[in-house]
Design goal:
With 142 residues, the protein is an alpha+beta fold. The chain has one domain (9-137): Trna Endonuclease, Chain: A, domain 1, CATH 3.40.1350. The protein is built from 5 helices and 4 strands.
Length: 142
């Protein structure tokens, strides 16, 4: 599912969730994946309300709350190509999440996020099953 090189993070993330919806027949647990809307421009009042509600800067954009291969779940921070910079707060969260047993990664395009999720969903499967799962996935709807 190649996306144009000047796509925004929002467009990349929307394409990823579209791909996930197409693949829920294969991996029903993809239906548990959700976005964490921490970023974006907001007015001061909305920002203050969200902060009181527990929104924190640096939390990754996407969470797949499915245990695989010894991990408790998968967090993805989406960045739009090479121009997207990972902030100090994001680095902190990614490192702490990894230390606490989550796979926590940065993906710079939809294709790398799809590959990461596909690989993650096959963690802990017997090698033959994981290989056939990955091969079948790369040929469908991409």
């Amino acid at each position: 599912m190649t996306f144009r090189s000047n796509a925004t993070e929002s467009q990349l993330q929307a394409a990823l969730f579209l791909w996930a919806s197409w693949h829920q027949g294969k991996w029903p647990d993809l239906g548990l994946m959700f976005a964490i809307p921490n970023g974006g421009a907001r007015d001061a009042v909305t920002g203050a309300v969200l902060k009181r509600e527990g929104v924190k800067p640096g939390v990754p954009d996407i969470f797949l709350p499915v245990a695989r291969g010894g991990y408790h779940g998968l967090f993805i921070e989406m960045k739009a190509g090479k121009r997207g910079k990972v902030s100090e707060q994001q680095e902190y969260y990614l490192n702490r999440l990894a230390w606490n047993g989550y796979q926590a990664i940065v993906c710079r395009d939809t294709d790398s996020a799809i590959k990461a999720i596909s690989n993650y969903m096959t963690l802990g499967l017997p090698e033959k099953a994981a290989k056939s799962d990955s091969t079948a996935d790369s040929t469908s709807r991409s």
